[in-house]
Design goal:
By secondary structure, this protein is mainly β. It has one domain: Transthyretin/hydroxyisourate hydrolase domain (Immunoglobulin-like, Sandwich), CATH 2.60.40.180. It is 6% helix and 45% strand. A four-stranded mixed sheet has the order 2-1-7-8, with no helix packed on it. Strands 4-3-5-6 form a four-stranded antiparallel sheet. A hairpin with a 4-residue loop joins β7 and β8.
């Protein structure tokens, strides 16, 4: 399956449909945008971000636009918001495996792990 992501809105108890996400490759402090996308009704990208054939060993970054998502849901956020964009840097060591990067998020906290 390659690389995928999923976001759950823990404040509202639902998938984070409509959240904007960007995927980057990173190397030596430089980040290169691979793609930007919007999460579907299930809080997922519409397909894998990379399949196993195109996934390369290396480091990556997912950037989740948390502030804009909660603002669009009508959440009264302070200015500046506690969380704006959440960046997750992670490594891919085995391109024959599936790397799933879920994000559990509220306006005040987030958690991630390597999912299945």
């Amino acid at each position: 399956m390659g690389l995928s992501t999923h976001v759950l809105d823990t404040m509202n108890g639902c998938p984070a449909a409509g959240m904007k996400v960007s995927l980057f490759t990173t190397e030596g402090g430089e980040a290169r945008l691979v793609q930007a996308f919007t999460l579907n009704a299930d809080g997922r990208s519409d397909g894998p971000l990379y399949d196993n054939h195109n996934l390369k060993k290396g480091t990556y970054r997912l950037v989740f636009d948390v502030k804009a998502y909660f603002h669009a849901r009508g959440v009264n956020l302070p200015e500046p918001a506690f969380l704006d964009q959440v960046s997750l840097d992670f490594g891919i060591a085995h391109t024959d495996q599936h790397y799933h990067v879920p994000l559990l998020v509220s306006p005040w906290s987030y958690s991630t792990y390597r999912g299945s």
